[in-house]
Amino acid sequence: MRALSVVLCLAALPAAGQSPFPVDIGGSYALTDQYGAARTEADPEGKAQLLFFGYANCLNICSAALPLMGQMVDALAQDGMDVTPVMITVAPDQDQVETMGAPLAVHHAAFIGLTGPQEDLQVAYDAFRVEVEPLFEDPEYGWVYSHGSFIHLLDGDGALLTLLPPILDVDQAVHIAATYLEPAQDG
Fold this sequence. Notes:
Layout: H1 2-11, E1 30-33, E2 38-40, E3 48-54, H2 62-78, E4 83-89, H3 101-105, E5 112-115, H4 118-127, E6 133-138, E7 142-146, E8 151-154, E9 160-164, H5 170-178
Parallel strand pairs: 3-4, 4-5
Antiparallel strand pairs: 1-2, 1-5, 3-8, 6-7, 8-9
Helix pairs in contact: 2-5
């Protein structure tokens, strides 16, 4: 029965430009990366993206999602698929331009961290239907937040291809992502 559900799920992949979900997820945003550069939902190099909403010093779901994203980038690269890992902060008071790069680089050197004013972040949260709520303040790490847990696979223009739960192992996540991606063309 399980194999049948996988076949049915894969058979129901949407046509190009159509959302794979019954609700629209994704959209435009304009934020600032850890280098101080402006960045939108579109990758500047046209690469696919793994997008996660979290914060760099999160010890909860982020500690599963961020390492998985780094491992996926390397595994997909072995198959010729270039993907950029991106995290939009849910804790702009903690993840600032000058502070979020180093913790993200632990998970992958190519990791891009995005932050900005609360109103700009809210645009991204709303577009991707991510709810953020402060839960309590940890004396050592600062505020702990409730936030979305899915990894969003986006195409190079920033359109949602699918969602990946961070509880998958790297092989499962790469297999799913690869069904949506094509190897980069040389030259």
